[in-house]
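ARCHIVE CARD
CATEGORY: sequence design from structure
SOURCE FIELD: tokenized fold
FIELD CONTENT:
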């Protein structure tokens, strides 16, 4: 897996008519709190050097160009405007409108002011600034006005960073399309022109013949990378029911796909599974999709481009700490009306497997149940040029053992889920990830300007 680091441009803001001393005291109290949040995943870029006369705070129109230049030079992924008093909406929007990036606004809760002395009026300024952001078409997130040391701030900040990670994963995204769409899978048809125009996402075709050629090259050379991989893989996976030659070929195939994705600058891929297994002479290539996932290369089955995009979004929501998967909605639990089988024929990652017994490779096909825990399921898709995102949360449960890789999902009311999925526009494929990320995807949908669907629909909200 990879670790996502978000470069966050932070410009505290103040109103010139309010006390510089009071705003400075607030800013000096806030910055250590910001720096302590998720230091492994967040790199802060402040304005202390370029706005020294304002003690690092944006307050005047002439500050705008300085801040924009610094943030662009540092390739920031998101913007944060903490209000140290009423703030200056002209400077905030002047900076924000020059980036197409997620924006966070927040200010700490003021103490009660007296009739004679009003120190900051932070909340008042937030209302003013957010109206101006809307006027300029800037989408923003906010954390509710709370004490600076409040868990509300900490939780909201973390959610925003995860939103920024998902949006960053889509920026200038290249999806490798390896092979053609299987003829019978009309449900995965996608519009490449709309992906380019509406999201800047490029689908780059890679011929199956190239994968075959690279696989055979790696296999014939049998270099140290492959032999080390074989030793490591067979130590953690029970391969006793798969011919050794098949294991070697599968691992060479996995390495070939990684190399080709790197060479084409692709972050995720949609695979023509039937075409690949036929050309390579394998019963299945699914087992290596799980390996690719654990190595940070999400790949979807049946050339499902939207599925691959959803997988990448799922792992980005975890900041690269959890593997994702692409599953079929398969069938309902025989004894639990609110449980559904989340299954596919072997592509789920080893890292997600329950370790109650050793995961197996049977005739080249992965066979294991996934671990127990909270799950988030999501699907993004298009119909008639309009985009939709479904997201829901549930918990795993136990159920009958089956083939391939699988887990049983329990939700509050499956019939409501089923109805939402039926009327879609969604298909039998769904991306999933362990954890609770519905609020993250709801906020991402606002930034992408797509319709957000969940079983309990809600509108924009405070982080």
């Amino acid at each position: 897996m990879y670790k996502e680091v978000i470069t966050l441009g932070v410009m505290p803001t103040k109103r010139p008519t309010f006390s510089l001393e009071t705003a400075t005291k607030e800013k000096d109290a806030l910055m250590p709190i910001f720096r302590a949040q998720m230091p492994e995943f967040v790199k802060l870029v402040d304005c202390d050097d370029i706005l020294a006369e304002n003690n690092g705070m944006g307050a005047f129109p002439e500050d705008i160009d300085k801040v924009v230049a610094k943030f662009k030079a540092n390739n920031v992924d998101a913007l944060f405007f903490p209000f140290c008093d009423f703030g200056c909406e002209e400077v905030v929007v002047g900076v924000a409108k020059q980036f197409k990036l997620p924006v966070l606004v927040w200010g700490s809760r003021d103490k009660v002011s007296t009739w004679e002395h009003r120190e900051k009026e932070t909340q008042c300024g937030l209302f003013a600034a957010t109206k101006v952001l809307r006027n300029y078409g800037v989408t923003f997130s906010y954390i509710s006005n709370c004490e600076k040391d409040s868990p509300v701030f900490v939780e909201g900040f973390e959610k925003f960073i995860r939103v920024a990670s998902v949006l960053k994963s889509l920026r200038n995204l290249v999806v490798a399309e390896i092979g053609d769409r299987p003829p019978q899978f009309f449900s995965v048809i996608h519009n490449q022109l709309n992906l380019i125009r509406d999201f800047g996402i490029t689908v780059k075709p890679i011929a199956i013949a190239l994968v075959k050629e690279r696989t055979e090259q790696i296999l014939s050379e049998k270099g140290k990378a492959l032999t080390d991989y074989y030793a490591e893989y067979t130590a953690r996976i029970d391969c006793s029911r798969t011919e050794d030659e098949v294991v070697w070929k599968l691992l060479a195939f996995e390495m070939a796909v990684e190399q080709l994705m790197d060479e084409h600058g692709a972050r995720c891929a949609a695979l023509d599974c039937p075409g690949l297994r036929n050309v390579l002479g394998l019963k299945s290539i699914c087992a290596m999709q799980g390996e690719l996932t654990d190595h940070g290369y999400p790949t979807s089955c049946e050339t499902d481009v939207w599925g691959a995009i959803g997988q990448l979004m799922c792992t980005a929501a975890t900041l690269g700490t959890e593997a994702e998967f692409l599953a079929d909605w398969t069938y309902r639990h025989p004894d639990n009306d609110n449980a559904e089988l989340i299954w596919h024929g072997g592509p789920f990652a080893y890292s997600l497997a329950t370790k109650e017994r050793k995961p197996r490779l049977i005739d080249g096909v992965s066979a294991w149940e996934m671990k127990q825990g909270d799950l988030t399921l999501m699907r993004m898709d298009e119909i008639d040029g309009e985009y939709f995102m479904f997201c829901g949360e549930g918990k795993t449960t136990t159920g009958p053992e089956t083939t391939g890789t699988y887990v049983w999902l329990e939700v509050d009311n499956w019939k409501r889920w089923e109805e939402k999925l039926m009327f879609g526009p969604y298909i039998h494929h769904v991306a999933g990830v362990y954890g609770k990320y519905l609020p993250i995807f709801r906020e991402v949908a606002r930034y992408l300007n797509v319709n957000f669907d969940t079983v309990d629909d809600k509108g924009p909200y405070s982080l």
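CARD ANNOTATION: The first helix runs from residue 20 to 35. Residues 244 and 364 are 10 Å apart (CA to CA).
SHELF: design records, drawer C
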